What we know:
The protein has 342 residues and is of the alpha/beta class. Helices cover 43% and strands 18% of the residues. The strands form two sheets. Strands 3-2-1-4-5-6-10-8 form an eight-stranded mixed sheet, with helices on both faces. Strands 7-9 form a two-stranded parallel ribbon. Helix 7 (162-181) links the parallel strand 4 (137-144) and strand 5. Mean pLDDT is 83; it is low at 1-13, 33-39 and 93-97.
Amino acid sequence: SLKATSSSSSSSSRRPSRRERRRRAVAVASTNETETKEEDQTKRIAIVFGATGGVGQLVCAKLLLDENRRYDVVHAMCRNKETGEAKLKTKNNASSASSSSSSTNARLRVTEVDVREEKDVEKVLDAIMTEGGEEAKVVVDIVCCLGTTAFPSQRWKENNGPEQTDDIATANVIRAARKICFNQRNTSDTNNNNDKSRFVLISSVGVTRTDSMPYVILNLFGVLKYKRKSEKYLEQTQKENDDTFDYTIVRPGRLTDGPYTSYDLNTLLKATSSERRQVEIKLGDDFDPQETSRIAVADCVAFSLASDLARNKAFVIGTKEGDSGPERDGKKWEALFQQSLM
């Protein structure tokens, strides 16, 4: 009896045979390959509203030329497709033709949409989300660069004033994004916040201080009031849908550097590559920058999309001339986001 027990114990603790070890290794490799394929099937896209504006055009450029290729496709949403393609597509000429330019054009989709009509926004987003088939996993980040002038101008024509642009149109985008893009099918199964969708809203400094100078003047026609209304709507929508998306609100001061709306993306990036600015970011709305570079705003948007530190936060951003700015250095942007939280 003792011998049998000893023999059984010895048999159960012996090392697996070479054939058994090989079989287990193949099984593990097969599992890893399946997991990798599932990850590869997840497509990440960016959708930029107001893509032909001074900031929107720069945002598209930064997202398309991201060294890490975070986005498979960048969708540029604009009122007129022909105008959008003329402003955004890289021209096929000797000075700009390159594999990089071809890749940029291949990953850019210019789409026509009237953001003042919620059904139109829903229709366009639904078409984007079903491009890869009903079962395709798509994670979407949205950047809303919609805006108009604070005072009456040519841009107000054809029903494009502050209420229609900064309130109605922006709310349409938020609602449609929540309904079409931010749902359980397109939400990552992991607990990593960076795998969640992000909605970045370009707003303005002074939205919470419309009773103090100079914002009393800037808000005479309601532009800051409507921007703040959209901020609050975005914040509330995120709270009600916390498991599907996060937000970041960027509040620039008076915009400088550009707009460069007469350039295509390739020319645009060459024209702005030497522009360097010191950047300051502060949480909330208590900072009064004298100015804010559009280039810095676009970089801030690009890096905030992947930053956990910018998750569900609202920042004021300001710039001034100098050579010590973060430019395209992700670690420096993370340090700025971290500093703003202290």
